[in-house]
Amino acid sequence: MNERKQTGRKASYLCSGLVYCANCGEKMHVYKSSRKGHTYLYYRCCGKCGASVVKLEDVDRVATAYIKELLSEDTQVKVARALRTYQGQEKDRVESFKSAIAKRIKEKETAYNNLLTNMTAAVLPVEVVTDLSAKMQQLKDEIAELKKAEPPADYSVDTIREWLQSIRTAPDEKAVQLLIARIEAKHTENKTDFNITSTLKPVLENMVAGEGFEPTTSGL
Ligand SMILES: [Zn+2]
Fold first, then answer.
1. Dihedral angle of Cα 80, 169, 65, 176, to the nearest 10 degrees
2. 101 domain-assigned
3. What is the number of domains present in the chain?
4. Alpha carbon of 88 to those of 79, 94, 95, 139, 215: distances in Å?
5. Residue 116 lies in domain
6. Do 207 and 198 meet the contact criterion of CB atoms below 8 Å apart?
7. Distance between Cα 43 and ligand 1 center (Å)
8. Could you tell me if 93 and 121 lie in one domain?
9. pLDDT tens digit sequence for 84-94
10. What distance in angstroms lies between residue 140's CA and the mean position of ligand 1's atoms?
11. How far is ligand 1, taken at its centre, from the CA of residue 45, in Å?
């Protein structure tokens, strides 16, 4: 059996840095094993506690299945709402936008009224009146534009749900690294048991974590 340490650029796998030995609590790292021209990838305990290695493909499959289960319809709604709340006090955001717009409208109306006063205060040459009228028309247009202004778009619950749904459909490394806090693995006899903790745990207090994942693996 040939095995070697990862060299150079730190190799990155779907679950890199997330896997822990359920036997002793130490981290598990990926190592490669070549046999008869095939390369096999495993996670192995760094603690040298004697725990069996765990197939990388099992870890990846379980993590992917976990994300799919984690991001159920129900969870998507909860996460979207939690993010919205976290993201920002929608009401405050809209209010501050409105008051900024109101201020600008008031400034332009004041300018408009000043021009109007100028125009009616004295007999003015035609060119000046024409010029003032153009300026007043411009201000009127600008005021109308400001009154139509909408608050800048914010992520809606639907947008966030769409995003979560796309992650669920095809969980990638980013999604796994973002949503999974810890994967505990232990290989015994002919199966590997996993216990997965999600980073969403604080958001989803009553989610079931990592139960029911027992991929069938042939003995090593
Ligand atoms: Zn261990």
1. -60
2. yes
3. 2
4. 14, 10, 12, 34, 41
5. 89-148
6. yes
7. 11
8. yes
9. 666 566 667 77
10. 74
11. 5
CA–centroid distance, residue 105 to ligand 1 (Å): 67
Ligand 1 geometric centre to CA of 48 (Å): 6
Do 66 and 100 share a domain, yes or no? Answer: no
Q: How far is the centre of ligand 1, averaged over its atoms, from the C-alpha of 196 (Å)?
A: 16
Verify that 143 and 190 share a domain, yes or no: no
**Residues of the chain above pLDDT 70, percent:** 80
Mean pLDDT of the chain: 82
What percent of the chain shows pLDDT beyond 90?
A: 34
**What is the 24 CA–ligand 1 centroid distance (Å)?**
4
Which of 66-75, 107-116, 197-206 is least confident? 197-206
Please, where are the H alpha helices in 22-89? 56-70, 73-87
Whole-model pTM: value is: 0.58
CB 87 within 8 A of CB 154: yes
Q: How far is the CA of 167 from the centre of ligand 1 (A)?
A: 31
CA–centroid distance, residue 15 to ligand 1 (Å) = 17
The verdict on residue 103 lying in a domain is: yes
Sheet with strand 54-55: strands edge to edge: 2-4, 28-35, 38-45, 54-55
154-199 pLDDT, tens digit each: 667 788 888 888 889 988 898 899 899 999 999 988 889 999 998 8
How close is the Cα of 204 to the center of ligand 1, in Å?
29
Look at residue 16 and tell me if it is in a domain: yes
In the chain, what's the furthest Cα-to-Cα distance? 103
Ligand 1 center from residue 42 Cα (angstroms): 14
What's the pLDDT tens digit per position in 3-24? 444 444 556 899 999 999 999 9
